[in-house]
Write a structure and sequence with these properties.
The complex is a heterodimer.
Chain A lengths: L2 H13 L4 H13 L1 H20 L9 H31 L5 H18 L33 E6 L6 E6 L21 H11 L1
Antiparallel strand pairs in A: 1-2
Helix pairs in contact in A: 1-2, 1-3, 2-3
Chain B lengths: L8 H8 L14 H9 L3 H23 L2 H18 L9 H23 L28 H4 L5 H11 L2 H12 L4 H8 L3 H25 L1
Helix pairs in contact in B: 2-3, 3-4, 3-5, 4-5, 5-9, 7-10, 8-10, 9-10
The chains are: A mainly alpha, B mainly alpha.
């Protein structure tokens, strides 16, 4: 029998957890070594003494103070988490500010897509102008959800280089404080009016 | 928060005693309900949980490090970690097993830090008590401090001194099994080791204790 197996048998015997098969294995060991049973009985006594002499639970000194100190630390922990939550909300409040940037990005992405497949117009209204009717099929269509925006597509004679000039995008003022973003005071009036029109 | 170092610790402990149910007026509420409330941010539920389990945690830490003031601080640390980790507790294991696991981590971190901080210095608190192989016949006898010597006639203090002589792993295994009453699998979970390791540690720790306590009988 392996050393690990005998150790397990001894431990389980002391704890009274042997099954019948394990008990018979141990009985064989007891028969072979008469001192073994006495030794394990000694271990059993030690176990009983430990269980009776060492308390499972000991109240810490000043138990009320223990709780109050701990709860103070917990409160500090809770308070420390709040700024992180506030910061998260602050970023959420900035989402609207990215709307015009997003719209512009959408336009540029659309333009890039058209450059990759110049034949497709996707059924969109052609708001562009070209300097050559022969090249018009290759010019990109530019679509805006906002009707007040216009675009002019300018391409060179070979159609290798083109540019889109977008008119009507509300300028974002340098004095807007995004950290204190306030829809009612910080945004240009023109932008707010266009937003209102759009929502109507 | 080590103000307790300046108090006469034994007299502080005596009147409070060991009472597993002390202060737990809401004992009828199951742990899991309190845990759910804590996970919802209810700090009062957490305080109830602390009151219910602080005695077991403090006893466990105290049995591991044998220093009341540090045991008090470390028990605080255990519960603060519990509060932080409670949102992740999924009740797959018993709460008490999970609590002992956190206690184990806090105590081992502390012992590791203490070992690093005290490298090269003479540390009469832990030195010679935690690095003696179980079953070693020639291990040096633990020298009791004067205040401990007063209690040497009591069986409890003999056991405590014998426990202090065990290495950290053997001491923890014995305390978790014999004192806290955890089964083998729970001990393996708390100590993050195999079942075979638990069996081996229990076997050698018991053998060592048996030898130490019989030596005490012989000398007294």
């Amino acid at each position: 029998m392996k050393k690990e197996q005998t150790e397990e048998l001894f431990v389980k015997w002391v704890d009274g957890r042997l099954n019948n098969e394990e008990q018979s294995q141990l009985d064989e060991l007891f028969a072979a070594d008469p001192e073994l049973e006495a030794e394990l009985t000694g271990a059993k006594e030690v176990t009983a003494v430990l269980q009776s002499e060492i308390p499972k639970s000991v109240e810490p000194p000043y138990p009320d103070f223990f709780n109050s100190q701990l709860m103070r630390k917990v409160d500090l922990e809770i308070a420390a988490q709040r700024p992180a939550e506030k910061a998260a909300r602050w970023w959420e409040s900035l989402r609207w500010a990215w709307a015009p940037v997003g719209a512009l990005a959408l336009v540029l992405a659309f333009f890039a897509g058209q450059r990759m497949s110049p034949q497709g117009n996707g059924g969109l209204a052609d708001r562009g102008t070209a300097d050559s009717s022969e090249k018009s099929e290759e010019l990109p269509n530019v679509y805006f959800a906002e009707k007040s925006l216009t675009a002019e597509v300018i391409a060179d004679a070979d159609g290798n280089v083109s540019a889109i000039v977008v008119e009507g995008i509300t300028a974002i003022s340098d004095d807007i404080d995004f950290a204190r973003a306030d829809r009612t005071t910080s945004l240009p009036a023109r932008y707010l009016q266009s937003e209102e029109r759009r929502l109507q | 928060m080590n103000f307790l170092r300046w108090t006469t610790s034994k007299s502080v402990m005596a009147p409070i005693g060991a009472s597993p149910d002390a202060g737990s007026s809401d004992q009828e509420i199951p742990d899991l309900e309190l845990i759910k409330a804590c996970q919802g941010g209810d700090s009062r539920a957490f305080e109830s949980l602390v009151t219910r389990h602080r005695g077991k945690v403090y006893a466990m830490v105290q049995n591991m490090i044998k220093n009341e003031a540090d045991a008090w601080d470390l028990s605080q640390e255990v519960f603060l970690k519990v509060w932080k980790a409670l949102p992740k507790f999924e009740a797959r294991a018993k709460f008490s097993t999970w609590l002992y696991r956190i206690t184990h981590n806090v105590v081992y971190d502390w012992l590791r830090k203490r070992k690093i901080d005290g490298a090269g210095e003479l540390d009469d608190g832990v030195l010679n008590q935690s690095d003696i192989a179980a079953g070693a016949r020639t291990s040096p006898a633990y020298q009791a401090r004067p205040d401990e010597a007063l209690q040497n006639s009591e069986l409890g203090s003999k056991i405590n001194r014998a426990l202090a002589t065990l290495n950290t792993e053997h001491r923890e295994t014995i305390v978790l099994r014999e004192v806290q009453g955890l089964d083998y699998k729970e001990i393996a979970k708390v100590m993050e080791c195999s079942l075979g390791t638990v069996m081996s540690r229990l076997y050698y720790a018991r053998k060592k204790l048996q030898s130490l306590l019989s030596d005490e009988k012989g000398t007294n």
